[in-house]
């Protein structure tokens, strides 16, 4: 059987995506049903259980190709944004509908039941969430999900931010959360992925995937030769250079997104794990 990465390949011994027929072994091959996340976010788990390990978090409006829905209320599918495969609560999904045309461009925004800030919000959406705007009422955008969002907090889906480091810097102080992808909590690779996405650059979900697929490799540079925007990788960790001396990263030491001297972070990680930087990458 062809080797594959279980994280991004929709295949199990009993079921696989139809397009993989002839490439992998499975009992049956099925076509997907396209759904979208209708909850503020949804955990993607390794197995259909509420206490199963979390791999990542899927944002409101992101589409999921669903290959199976169980009687217990779990859906197994592949996230269309970054190809991650896993189990979500079926209650967090709804029919895909029309394509989104806007994204949340601020760290967080509220969805109101009417075009007024004095109504009680229905939910809060994080940066990167996707919506379809149907109409404008004053400063509010009416979405196809039925709620109103402050229009200035949205940007056309095709628009691009100019500086992904500036986007990443807005997360400083956000709690570290393994598997998280929202402004309530996120991990190191989600910080990179979300910041690049705001600038129109699609990045894989995990740090090892990003190390293989993002930017061009650099030699083992001296600290003073690094530049703003360079990615720094360790085994299982990634950070962004905010400037030539400062590393911006979500990390389990501070349990926050922080900007700190790169030399200090490098020394601390080496002391704690015995592992040094594995690569530098530049766009």
Structure commentary:
This protein has four helices and 25 strands. It is globular and about 50 Å long.
How is the topology of this model organized?
Elements (H helix, E strand, L loop, with lengths): L15 E2 L11 E2 L2 E5 L3 E5 L8 E6 L3 E7 L4 E6 L5 E5 L3 E3 L6 E3 L3 E5 L10 E4 L3 E2 L1 E5 L2 E4 L4 E3 L3 E3 L7 H6 L11 E2 L2 E2 L1 H11 L8 H7 L2 E3 L12 E4 L2 E5 L4 E6 L4 E6 H12 L5 E4 L1
Parallel strand pairs: 1-2
Antiparallel strand pairs: 3-6, 3-9, 4-5, 6-7, 7-8, 10-13, 10-17, 11-12, 11-16, 14-15, 15-16, 18-19, 20-25, 21-22, 21-25, 22-23, 23-24
Q: For the record, give the distance between the C-alpha atoms at the N and C termini, rounded to a whole number.
A: 35 Å
Care to count the β-strands?
A: 25
For the residues shown, what is the average pLDDT? 96
Fraction of residues in helices?
10-25%
Major β-sheet, in short?
6 strands, antiparallel
Give the amount of beta strand, in percent.
35-45%
The strand order across the widest sheet is 20-25-21-22-23-24
Shape: globular
Keywords:
13% helix; 25 strands; five-stranded antiparallel sheet; cysteine-type peptidase activity; mainly beta; 283 residues; 4 helices
